[in-house]
Write a structure and sequence with these properties.
alpha/beta, four-stranded mixed sheet, about 35% helix, 2 domains, Aspartate Aminotransferase, domain 2
């Protein structure tokens, strides 16, 4: 595979950006080689600067549920662009997208559009603190909520200790307001509430943890979170930046039939444009400025181009059997690869939910917490990633990242990808004991 143009562009980018990229995982530090510079995409395929073609399972990290360059989204973007790119004022597009979401989502009554998932989470946490008058937040090891100072923390020693900053530039005082506990651990959660009975504003969780592998939780654990929040007058925040509108129009809240107090969204609602949102019932949302004392603002929030793109994409997602078809394609794809690996006794398993999947080098039947993921096994993903690129498949450049299947992935595309993945598995595992 020729990568001369990507290499030249990357060498140039190193002069402009830290690590040559504008988001760390893009730097390919977890895999071999250097980042490919993507020139265009269409359907389920992308082409890099050297003209190499790939079936894409990254899908811009999830938002491209219709695939690349879908005609309805493109036409709606053109319609909005004809009128202008930004006004810093309300537009009808914002109303239309909000109505489309709220009319088809029983778990929120009002929402606020922002510009990213990180901004949505940051605003949701502030709202929880402002609404409850409490300070501390509980998060879970292995769940990522964007680069928010209070949540960019890792666990300290012990089950229910304050978090420790996982990034330079985050003051210890900020991290100390966050309690980090393991996923799938009811005892640790109970201990945290016993230790800080009157000062926990909220629990925040990815109900479908998909930023550190795909760590599917038992419904009983999520129900336990709801119970503990109710008992302690704390709020439950579902971070559905990835799962929202991906596993179903109402996301994980509907999938598990659990009512969170606040939900954050992103990715899909922008049709590929930068966007995020957070929502709750009317009473909680009444605390947001200008109605209430919790301040949050954004010059480009509800940008008309992003709103227009989101309208077109979410209308397509409401088509009959849209999510059922996506899930069935994904299940079949995962099953075929898992059967191949099992028949060859390869210690690899693909986990999936909805149209999300994850390749894990493990023999565990389920992975529910971060400590089950063996960092040394990521070497095998590095080898797999390189071989997949050589054979025309593009996946996220980290073994901790999940993959996505879009409506644009045909049965023929997926059958081709299955063959490539299986042959690459054999190439790296046939003579190796993982």
């Amino acid at each position: 595979m020729i990568k001369d143009k990507s290499k030249a562009l990357y060498d140039e980018a190193l002069d402009y950006f830290p690590g040559g990229v504008n988001s760390p995982v893009r730097a390919f530090r977890s895999v071999y080689g250097f980042p490919l510079f993507i020139e265009r995409g269409d359907g389920c395929r992308i082409w890099d600067a050297d003209g190499n073609e790939f079936i894409d399972f990254c899908c811009s990290w999830g938002p491209l549920i219709l695939g690349h360059n879908p005609k309805p989204v493109k036409e709606k973007i053109y319609e909005a662009l004809e009128k202008g790119t930004s006004f810093g004022a309300p537009t009808a597009y914002g109303n239309e997208l909000a109505k489309l979401i709220l009319d088809n989502n029983q778990y929120i009554e009002k929402l606020r559009f922002v510009n990213s998932g990180t901004e949505a989470v940051m605003s949701a946490v502030r709202l929880a603190r402002g609404y409850t008058g409490k300070n501390k937040i509980i998060k879970f090891e292995g769940c990522y909520h964007g680069h928010v100072d209070h949540l960019l923390v890792k666990a300290g020693s012990g089950l229910a200790t304050f978090g420790v900053s996982s990034s330079a530039g985050v003051p210890a005082a900020f991290a100390a307001e966050t309690i980090v506990i393991p996923l799938n651990d009811q005892a640790a959660l109970t201990e945290a509430f016993n230790k800080y009975p009157n000062d926990i504003a909220a629990i925040i969780i990815e109900p479908i943890p998909a930023n550190n592998g795909l760590m599917l939780q038992d419904p009983s654990f999520l129900e336990f979170l709801r119970l503990k929040c109710d008992e302690n007058k704390s709020l439950l925040i579902f971070d559905e930046v990835i799962s929202g509108f991906r596993i179903g129009f109402e996301g994980a809240a509907a999938y598990y039939n659990i009512q969170p107090d606040i939900i954050t969204y992103g990715k899909i609602i922008g049709g590929g444009m930068p966007v995020g949102a957070y929502g709750a019932n009317k009473e909680i949302m009444s605390h947001i400025a200008p109605d209430g004392p919790v301040y949050q603002a954004g010059t480009l929030s509800a940008n008309p181009v992003a709103m227009a793109a989101g309208i077109a994409q979410l209308q397509a997602c409401l088509a009959p059997n849209f999510y059922e078809d996506l899930e069935n394609k994904t299940k079949n794809f995962v099953l075929n690869i898992n059967n191949y690996c099992a028949s060859n006794q390869y210690p690899v398993k693909l986990f999936s939910i909805g149209s999300i999947f994850w390749i894990a080098f493990t023999q565990d039947e389920s992975i529910k917490s971060a400590n089950q993921i063996q960092a040394e096994k990521m070497q095998y993903f590095k080898e797999l990633h390189a071989k997949l690129l050589e054979n025309g498949l593009y996946v996220g450049p980290s073994g901790y990242e999940v993959g996505f299947i879009s409506a644009a992935h045909s049965k023929e595309d997926l059958a081709q990808a299955e063959k490539v993945i299986c042959s690459c598995m054999t190439a790296i595992l046939k003579t190796t004991t993982v």
